Amino acid sequence: MNLDHPVLSSLLPVVVLIFIGYMAGRARLVRGESVRDLSNLVFLVLTQALLFRTMASSHVAQLDFRPVMQYFLVASVLFFTMLAVYGGNSRASVMALAGIFSNTLMIGVPLVGLAYGQAGQVLLFTLISLHALILLSIATLVLELQVAREAAAQSGDVRSVWRTVGSAVRNAIIHPVPLPILAGIAYSFTGWGLHPVIDKPLLLLGNAFGPVALVLVGITLSQTPVGQQWKTALRLSLVKTVVHPALMAAVGWLLGLRGLQLGVMVLAAALPIGANVFLFSQRYRKEEEMITAAVGVSTAVALVSITVVLALLPLLPT
After folding, report:
1. Is 102 helix (H, G, I), strand (E, B) or coil?
2. What distances in angstroms separate CA 303 from CA 12, 32, 248, one per listed residue?
């Protein structure tokens, strides 16, 4: 086995980190009641640092957004289609997010760098700069609307539609994901840059996000009855790693994407489910076991699907 193959060299570290977490969980090094606290640490501290620093350091005006907007068009259509298929409730929102949210950072950056070089990474960084803002914000807004509606139905408090929408929008904006992204974008327009005293701690915290989140996935996986979840997890993984890139390839080609732009966007769509979806399910306590299993299963499935994508991309008509 050639461990220097681009797909293996990008995905195996993710598998190893999940396995380390799994063994730590099986050895009871982290107790079940501590998982929620670790999840909060990652979601409310490490994620904040990563998102703010990424956006504060970006040069939004200089980025090429045309292929990225087409990527989000495909992702949005797939999200709302899955939302309807899975029942249109708060559980469905988390499932639909898993079908479109890629592990662009831990896996995407090294994989695109190996496959397309620096030019491909610049395009991927453009996608990353908006990936969480757009996809997590859409999911947050939809989920907050559903949670508000479900809570009103259970309590018998039938509030006006506008009050429900207003509450959901407020909760979606004052939220641990969109808030640091919007703050980072606003700061980037000042042109001041980040002083090393601030930048270094943010960098260290942001770098810790991927490894800690994946170890946490492994810990949770050790406490999850995967046997009961594997069929649903496999179906969701196939949507993420097969259906998503196939749609991106078809729609992107029809809308005029070619070459490097099409290749990077399709490869990004083929990536396995990102750890942010796991944290999202933990925060809202929706489909936690299934999403935990799906993150692990999609990473394994991606070993095959990404290899196929890389083989087929050069065959697309120019």
Report:
1. strand
2. 9, 30, 19
